[in-house]
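Weekly modeling sync, notes
Attendees: AB, CL, MP (scribe)

Item 1: holo prediction request
CL wants a bound-state model with cobalt (II) ion before deciding which constructs to order. AB pointed out that an apo prediction alone won't tell us much about the pocket. Agreed to run with the ligand included and paste results into these notes for async review.

Input as submitted:
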Amino acid sequence: MISLKSSREISLMRKAGEVVAKVFTKVGPLCVPGISTLQLANKAEEVIRKEGAIPTFLNYNGYPGAICISVNDTLVHGIPSEKIILKDGDIVSLDVGATLDGYCADACRTYLVGICKENAKRLVKITEECFFKGVSLIKPGIHLGDVCHAIETHAIKHGYSVPREFTGHGIGSHLHEDPYIPNYGKEGSGPILVEGMTLAIEPMIAEGKPQVRILSDGWTAKMKDGKLSSHYENTLVVTKEGYEILTLEKEIK
Ligand code: MF3
Ligand code: CO
């Protein structure tokens, strides 16, 4: 069942979204060569708690980190570690959830570390574009599959692939709610969007083949072929006219 949020609930999610955006503003610039992913996660947790919020992912199904940090061929759910040190040319995703007054927001950015190769820059850029290609269609009355299809089409057009194991999702008082939102699909399929739905849409795009493997830590999802992967996500609400994204940074990106 897809729950529709009241304007009070949307206001609470907007506030949670502002906390997530603040993490990007504060921690994004720290993604430079030499820093460990644990240091980045600690800083993110500090920002979240200072705002009176809780890091949503910590202990979620036993996840051990405050946020997920995934480098290069790690697609998602990288566990912050003092042993993982960023180096020049890496790409690193910060996937951040914050819960404030019982409501969640969830978003992800992939940052370039130092000087990156053209292929890395292109993958990160196209992954963001996949999000906006899909989301720009959103308004009451369209099918969710239209959004999924637009994401997939843009990725394929650029020679990339779409891993199938992970999807976007509804979000609200729970991190994961109905509907699930694949990054692939058919136009005209799936639920019809209605004002008040709150969705986390998150293209996860691979430079090579789409197959992933999970490391023995039970979380870290890596590309089997060792090629790069990128992730971009925002939480949004379907409005009367279209949509409002709740997790965008206030400053110019
Ligand atoms: N953005 C991811 C998701 O929506 C992050 C979840 S990590 C977890 O699934 F640890 F909370 F599972
Ligand atoms: Co998510």
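Recorded for review: The longest strand covers residues 91-100.
Action items: CL to compare against the apo run; MP to circulate these notes.
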